[in-house]
Every structure is written in structure tokens, then in C-alpha cells.
């Protein structure tokens, strides 16, 4: 009886566990990236990945996500800074 447990039941049990784990893992991987939520690096709000811009920053390959509103605010802030710098330079 002990022989049957070690030779037959344990390998079948291990196979079933591995099979169930691989099925669960593959179902998680099939999720579309557009369905995932990510946090904007500036405002810290959650958005769908399809609504964010991903940029790799620095030499370490760190990827940051930015929402459209934050990008627009940064653009306007930069434009205003350039205007005040050129006005002060005149």
C-alpha cells in the first residue's frame, strides 16, 4: 500500500497541482494591458493603461506613466516659464 502511495498517488497529486497553477497563471497573463490600472507619476490617480503615456526615464530603465491632464499642465507651466524668462531677458 505504501508503494502505491509513493509511486502512483504522489506524482498524480503533484501533476494536478502544477496543472491547476499553470491554468491560473495563463488566465492572468491573457488580461489585456489596456484593462490594467496604473497610477500617474505626477497626480497619483489611477487610470487605465490605454489612457496613460509610458516613458522610460533615466539610465536605470524605470518606466513612469503620465496622464494627459498632467502632461498638459506641465506643458503650460513650461511655456509660462519660457515666456517669463524671455520677458526678463529683454
Order of helices and strands: HEEEEH
The assigned CATH architecture of the largest domain is 2-Layer Sandwich
CATH class of the largest domain: Alpha Beta
Shape designation = rod-shaped
Strand content: 15-25%
SSE class: alpha+beta
In short:
Helix content is 56%, strand content 20%. The chain is built from 2 helices and 4 strands.
3D structure, described in words:
The chain has helices at residues 2-29, 68-89, and strands at 37-39, 46-48, 52-57, 62-67. It has two helices and four strands, in the order αββββα. It has two domains: 1-30; 32-90, 2-Layer Sandwich (Wheat Germ Agglutinin (Isolectin 2), domain 1), CATH 3.30.60. β3 and β4 form a beta hairpin. The protein has a two-stranded antiparallel sheet with strand order 1-2. A two-stranded antiparallel ribbon has the order 3-4. It is of the alpha+beta class.
Keywords:
Wheat Germ Agglutinin (Isolectin 2), domain 1, rod-shaped, alpha+beta, 90 residues, two-stranded antiparallel ribbon
Could you outline the blueprint of secondary structure elements for this entry?
Elements: H1 2-29, E1 37-39, E2 46-48, E3 52-57, E4 62-67, H2 68-89
Antiparallel strand pairs: 1-2, 3-4
Amino acid at each position: 500500500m505504501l508503494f502505491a502511495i509513493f509511486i502512483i498517488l504522489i506524482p498524480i497529486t503533484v501533476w494536478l497541482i502544477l496543472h491547476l497553477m499553470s491554468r491560473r497563471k495563463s488566465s492572468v497573463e491573457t488580461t489585456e494591458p489596456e484593462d490594467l490600472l496604473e497610477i500617474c507619476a505626477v497626480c497619483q490617480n489611477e487610470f487605465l493603461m490605454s489612457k496613460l503615456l509610458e516613458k522610460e526615464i533615466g539610465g536605470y530603465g524605470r518606466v513612469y506613466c503620465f496622464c494627459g491632464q498632467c502632461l498638459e499642465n506641465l506643458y503650460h507651466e513650461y511655456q509660462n516659464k519660457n515666456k517669463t524668462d524671455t520677458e526678463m531677458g529683454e
